[in-house]
Design brief:
Elements (H helix, E strand, L loop, with lengths): L17 H18 L4 E6 L4 E6 L7 H15 L19 H4 L10 E6 L2 E9 L3 H14 L4
Helix pairs in contact: 1-4
Length: 148
């Protein structure tokens, strides 16, 4: 007698889309406006590919690079960059990590991973304000979108 067991299926979680990225960018711009901050916002999918980007006309040029690196860092480590800052200090656990990888990581507040149904689906980064402002912008944006 042969017995078969039903195949186990993993629930499918909807990927981050360009429409999601557009909505996240608009929400981040509103949050930044509320703080009087001009900067750049980056949205990456779960594979680290760029889904959306916007730099305010009045933002400092480097904000584009910092927003992208913050998003990449949050995605790679699946953690808000604000929670990682102490880990790269000279006595921190990840002290050599930023120089030991080819990835463009940046351990400054302003990047958050994005989750849907408990699964990592991408990341959001903002650069242009003080680190605390950048973190407030991305954290509020992810929470508003239900992707925190």
């Amino acid at each position: 007698m042969s017995t078969t067991t039903p195949a186990t299926t993993t629930p499918t979680v909807r990927s981050l889309t360009t429409r999601d990225a557009d909505a996240l960018i608009e929400a981040a711009v509103r949050a930044a406006d509320g703080l009087g901050v001009r900067g750049s916002v980056t949205v990456l999918d779960a594979g680290g590919h760029l889904l959306g980007f916007r730099r305010d006309d009045q933002a400092v040029l480097i904000s584009g690079e910092t927003s992208t690196r913050k998003a990449c860092t949050a995605l790679q480590l699946d953690a808000p960059t604000a929670d990682l800052v102490d880990l790269v200090r000279p006595d921190g656990l990840f002290h050599t990590l930023p120089t030991g990888l080819d990835r463009p990581l940046l351990f400054i507040a302003g990047g958050v991973p994005l989750h849907r149904d408990g699964r990592l689906i991408g990341a959001l980064g903002f650069g242009g304000g003080a680190p605390e402002q950048d973190h407030r912008i991305v954290a509020a944006t992810a929470a508003e979108a239900g992707l925190a």
